[in-house]
Write a structure and sequence with these properties.
6-stranded mixed beta sheet; single chain; alpha+beta; 346 residues; 34% strand; elongated
Length: 346
């Protein structure tokens, strides 16, 4: 099952202008707060109306400004899971699940469908409980059951773990992965958490100010992000303007000069992956002297903020505690290997 989106919506100081398609995959909409990710989902669901454009779900046009098509949410056959799950507080688990039905059914068949989802999501014994009596995991399972009972052609998840602590996030993520593995259609997953996106999704659309900056399979986007926005969102901690000429890259902010063979047309910036830096014992073409400006002690790893030569901006270096301890008495030289470097455009 596929989705095609090509829409624009002007909100005054902000304009959403996105085009993408996806089929039988889990596509992440990755970006910072206020970049248009959730607005995209609301437009697809029919909660918001785009100013112009077209949305097609499984071959059915649900919105087309030129043809004046704008199907109501209940006719779009999409399931949208909100951050707080949006369970009705005055309804029991089984009543909440039944609300997801898109058609009127005989009482017996309705009860059977609800009971089937209760078993599938391990909610036995909780049928008469109110949402206030449920744990976070139980609420998520109830919300997923309510969404899936309507047999949606498209599932959309809007930061479903954002309000949870790290341990509960991990538990619910595992449950969600099991659910998504059984879903035959397309899933849109909104998040600003790169690790979560990498574990759950197959493809990534990186958002920047209401537009899609970069889109591709997750392996490519993480390893070859191409743009500054994509690099930062996928975990590159060091990004600075750069000048490229004659096989050399100059980064004035860091006081850095390195051999360079850019794999990108007309790069404007250089990124350096903080975890890829290595201590060195001798001078070399990719080795630079440094001064430690700040040390940040972490639970399992350390962060060094270092200054290179005459650089005016600091470089972030992340390393294990063992590696940090081993280099305490060595020369203050850092190697910047080729696989630590990414070439970027603004």
């Amino acid at each position: 099952m596929a989705i095609e989106v090509n829409i624009k919506k002007n909100l005054g100081s902000f304009t959403l202008d996105v085009q993408f398609s996806a089929e039988n995959t889990v596509l992440a909409l990755l970006g910072g707060s206020g970049c248009g990710k959730s607005l995209t989902l609301r437009c697809i669901a029919g909660i918001e109306r785009p100013d112009s454009g077209k949305i097609v779900i499984d071959g059915v046009t649900v919105f087309d400004s030129d043809q004046r098509i704008d199907l109501p949410p209940q006719q779009r056959q999409v399931g949208l899971l909100f951050q707080n799950y949006a369970l009705f507080p005055n309804m029991t688990v089984e009543e909440n699940i039944a609300c997801g039905l898109r058609e009127k059914l005989p009482k017996g068949e309705k009860h059977s469908r609800v009971a089937q989802l209760v078993r599938r999501f391990h909610l036995e014994g909780l049928e008469k409980h109110l949402p206030s009596q449920l744990s976070g995991g139980q609420k998520q399972r109830a919300a997923l059951a309510r969404m899936l009972i309507g047999e949606p052609k498209l599932i959309m998840l809007d930061e479903p773990f954002s309000a949870l602590d790290s341990y509960l996030r991990w538990e619910l993520e595992r449950e969600l992965l099991r659910t998504l593995s059984e879903f035959p259609g397309t899933v849109l997953f909104v998040s600003h958490d790169r690790d979560e996106v990498y574990r759950i999704c197959d493809e990534i659309a990186v958002y920047k100010n209401g537009t899609i900056d970069v889109m591709g399979d997750k392996w490519t986007v993480f390893r070859h992000p191409e743009t500054c926005t994509a690099a930062i969102l996928t975990g590159c901690k060091n990004v600075a303007p750069a000048e490229f000429r004659d096989g050399v890259v100059l980064v004035p902010d860091w006081g850095l000069q390195l051999p360079a063979q850019p794999d990108l047309d007309s790069p404007t910036h250089l990124g350096i992956r903080a975890r890829k830096l290595r201590p060195a014992v001798a001078e070399g073409p990719r080795t630079v002297a440094y001064t430690v400006v700040e040390e940040i002690d972490g639970a399992f790893s350390d962060i060094l903020m270092i200054s290179l030569r005459e650089g005016k901006a600091l470089l972030r270096w992340e390393l294990t505690k063992e590696a940090h301890w081993a280099m305490k008495d060595g020369p203050q030289l850092v190697e910047i290997p080729e696989d630590a470097v990414v070439y970027l455009r603004d």
